[in-house]
Amino acid sequence: MKTTKPDERDMRQEVTATGRDTRTAVLTRSVRANVPLRKTFVQANPGGDSRHGPLKQFVTGRDLRGLKAYLLIVAACSSGENGWSTTHDSAVWARLMDIHRTADDQSARTGAWRTLHRLGGRNLITCRRSGTRITVTLLREDGSGRPYDRPDGRTEEDRYLQIPATFWTTGRDESLDLPALALLLVVAREKNWSSFPAERAPEWYGWSADTHERGLKKLVALGLVERREDWVKAPLAPLGFTKSHQYKRTAALQPRRARKATPAAR
Question: What is the topology classification, in CATH, of domain 193-251?
Fold first, then answer.
C-alpha cells in the first residue's frame, strides 16, 4: 500500500489553491475592476406592492453561503464573455464557496450543487450538470426569471451599484456575516451620506430593525463604512431637533477606475 510522506503532504498543502486564490482567479479572468449589480436586487423600485428585493430571501433564510455565491456568479458572468455563463468543476465551485474547508470532497461537491440549485429556485440563475462540471447562467437580478443583460443605468430598472473586485481579492468578504453583507449592499445602493433608519427596514427591505442595526454596526467596526451624526430642526420635537446617522462607503469599497489600456508598441 502506497503511503504519502509527511513532507509530501506539506508540499501539497502549500501548492493547493485556497478559496481566496480561486475567487481571485475567477475575477482576474473576468477582467473587471468593478462588478455591476442592479439595485432591484436589494430593493424594488417604488410603485409596486412591495419594496422588498430578492436580497430579503437570503437574509430571512439565513443563507450567507448562497448570497456570497450569487455575488461571485455575477462577478464571473457579467462580463458577457461566455454568454453570461461560467462553467467549473463542482470541486472548484465548492472551493469558491469555501465549503471544502469543513467537508470532504464529495460532501463539498454536493454542497456546492445544492447552493447553486437553491439560487436557481429563486430565479436568479439557471444551472445544469454534466458529469462533475456545472454551468451557471445569470438571470435578471430582480428574480423575475427574465434573461440577463448588462445594466447600463439609462432607466430606473437598469440603475446599478458597483462592488470593487478588491472586495474579494483582499479577503474583505471573508470577515462579513450575513447582516453586514446585506447592509453593505444597501449602503452601496444609495448616495454617500444617506440615512438608513432601522425602523423602516421591515418595510423597505423585509428584515428586522435589529438585523439592520447589527449590519451597520459591523460595517463601521470593520472600517468599510463611515458614520456621522445628522441634526435636523424639528419644531414639534421635545428638544426642537432630531438626530440621526448618515453613512457612506470608505475608500475600500468605492468603485475603482478602470485602467487604461497600454498602447501596443509599433
Answer: Arc Repressor Mutant, subunit A (1.10.10)
